[in-house]
Amino acid sequence: xxxxxxxxxxxxxxxxxxxxxxxxxxxxxxxxxxxxxxxxxxxxxxxxxxxxxxxxxxxxxxxxxxxxxxxxxxxxxxxxxxxxxxxxxxxxxxxxxxxxxxxxxxxxxxxxxxxxxxxxxxxxxxxxxxxxxxxxxxxxxxxxxxxxxxxxxxxxxxxxxxxxxxxxxxxxxxxxxxxxxxxxxxxxxxxxxxxxxxxxxxxxxxxxxxxxxxxxxxxxxxxxxxxxxxxxxxxxxxxxxxxxxxxxxxxxxxxxxxxxxxxxxxxxxxxxxxxxxxxxxxxxxxxxxxxxxxxxxxxxxxxx
Length: 304
What we know:
There is one protein chain. The protein is α/β, with parallel strands linked by helices. The chain is built from 10 helices and 10 strands. Strands 5-4-3-6-7-10 form a 6-stranded mixed beta sheet, sandwiched between helices. Strands 1-2 form a two-stranded antiparallel ribbon. Helix 2 packs across helix 4 (108-125), helix 4 (108-125) packs antiparallel against helix 5 and helix 6 (170-180) packs parallel to helix 7 (197-209). It is elongated.
């Protein structure tokens, strides 16, 4: 059923979101639903971080005196703060043909687009700059990072106009992008990462060498993880001409073992490179994407 104003948390549910056709509106509803579930708003804008102490001098405002320090030292010190530097984020969305997979009208690309647009919406409200790149076998669209109010609409429009219909070349594309995205910042990748793990390692390493913080949202359909097929099935390659007609029950155990090993290796690759990794099923609410980003940002603040 369509989302309603009295059930904002439903805006995180893909089964509800697919009924909201405009991507910019869908993204706004996701963020609204996410905020409803938070104890405090993630719309912090410019954050103020504690920098250190200095001795009090006449004329300083009393409200900035650190009374805890005074109680221990019997001397007056002023707490000084600095404004956090806002971040620059580049959202990289896989629009290769394999991202078209999905049942009941909700594909991996739909999920990736909604997640990316929602994150863009959140970033804009935090006064961060956000840009977009789409790719398959080559870079398709590039929107340079900006904090303009219209940026989210432009990102949504670009994603809505994108049709996944080509193969992919992760390593080649990421090599090019790592050279193009010169200013250090966040690189958030939305992809099914259907490539050899060594290729994934080489691709992600390009961004890390350049000093970027990398967040990967590994987007897979439930079918790809659980292999729920029971009846004789015809499997058609999305990025190849391969066709296999088989009884899936005879393949299930072997398939599940292969996919489990693959996911373990991808996690291991991400951990070894210091890349933040999240597996996102297309059936799961999108709050995981926003929560993961905010958790990463809080860690990055403390490190910085």
